[in-house]
């Protein structure tokens, strides 16, 4: 059962309107964006705001439990069904009868869960580095972890064995993984730093559903797997991945093969946040896909 709460009254929505209008140009549809985490702020998706220049609104919101939508609730409150319902609540509040839906990482998992409910007016999906199976994600993340320098692995192993994953030394070692496979920009842009700062301030949702980090998955999502249901997704779908992504080729291939007619594009020299690492290239890719969908 979904916890009784109005997602609509809590979620904070940010709109990137097209110039001189509060709607779309003829033939265009708005793009609703779902951030990752779970429990990360939407800020790191800000480069996608440039898509508003293609004649459509680009809409972001902080999901319940993070950023400006933070609320304190017991662990059992944070379930997938809550966030699926929240997508519908945001659509209803903004009158978004027909949309394109973008999801990054967990946001793409959420987008797929939402698509499986067969909502009216869903024109397409854009899935950025979004796995269909957390058990496979964990296997691949730990494979990448074992490619880290030996000293970094030693620090990770020792603190995990001691239960001190909140220590500064452990967090510093974890960051070596993130710099290789999450965001390869140096330094990280302000909008990425804001997302990580917000996650550190309110880690409840991430810890409950994911765990301490990207490769130690102890949360409620640890057995999540919709691989067997991917064939039920019946809208045009673009899948994006990075060459150095923690969303590895094994995972990308499974997603592309599972969703009928889906497209897969892997961006060279990028990792998990391709839209931050190559914003112009990424936005052009997504804009082209959305245009093709709208043109039938």
Poorly predicted spans: 1-11
How much helicity do the residues have? 25-40%
Mean pLDDT: 93
Q: Helix/strand/pairing class, anyone?
A: alpha/beta
Shape: globular
Give the strand content: 5-15%
- The tally of strands reads 7
The H-and-E topology, N to C, reads as HEEEHEHEHHHHHEHEHH
Major sheet: 7 strands, mixed
Number of helices: 11
Structural write-up:
The protein is 39% helix and 13% strand. It has helices spanning 7-10, 80-94, 106-115, 134-145, 150-162, 168-181, 190-201, 204-209, 249-258, 274-277, 279-294, and strands at residues 12-16, 31-34, 58-62, 99-104, 122-128, 237-242, 263-267. It has a 7-stranded mixed sheet with strand order 1-3-2-4-5-6-7, sandwiched between helices. Strand 6, helix 9 (249-258) and strand 7 (263-267) form a beta-alpha-beta unit. Helix 5 packs across helix 6. The radius of gyration is 18 Å and the shape is globular.
């Amino acid at each position: 059962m979904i916890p009784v709460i109005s997602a609509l009254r809590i979620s904070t929505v940010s709109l990137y309107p097209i110039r001189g209008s509060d709607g779309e140009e003829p033939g265009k549809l708005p793009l609703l964006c779902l951030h990752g985490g779970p429990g990360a702020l939407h800020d790191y998706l800000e480069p996608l705001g440039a898509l508003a220049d293609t004649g459509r609104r680009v809409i972001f919101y902080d999901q319940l439990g993070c950023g400006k939508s933070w609320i304190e609730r017991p662990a059992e409150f944070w379930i997938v069904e809550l966030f699926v319902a929240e997508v519908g609540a945001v659509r209803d509040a903004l009158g978004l009868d027909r949309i394109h839906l973008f999801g990054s990482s967990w946001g793409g998992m959420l987008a797929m869960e939402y698509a499986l409910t067969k909502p009216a007016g869903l024109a397409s999906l854009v899935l950025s580095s979004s796995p269909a199976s957390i058990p496979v994600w964990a296997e691949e993340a730990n494979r990448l972890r074992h490619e880290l320098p030996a000293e970094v692995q030693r620090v990770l192993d020792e603190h995990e064995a001691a239960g001190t994953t909140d220590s500064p030394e452990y967090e510093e070692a974890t960051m070596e993984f993130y710099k290789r496979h999450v965001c390869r920009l140096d330094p990280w842009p302000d909008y990425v730093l804001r997302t990580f700062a917000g996650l550190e301030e309110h880690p409840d949702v991430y810890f409950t559903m994911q765990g301490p980090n990207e490769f130690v998955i102890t949360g409620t999502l640890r057995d999540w797997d919709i691989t067997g249901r991917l064939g039920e997704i019946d809208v045009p779908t673009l899948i994006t991945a990075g060459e150095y992504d923690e969303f590895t080729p094994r995972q990308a291939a499974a997603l592309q093969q599972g969703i009928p007619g889906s497209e897969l594009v892997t961006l060279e020299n990028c990792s998990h946040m391709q839209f931050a690492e190559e914003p112009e290239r990424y936005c052009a890719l997504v804009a082209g896909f959305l245009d093709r969908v709208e043109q039938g």
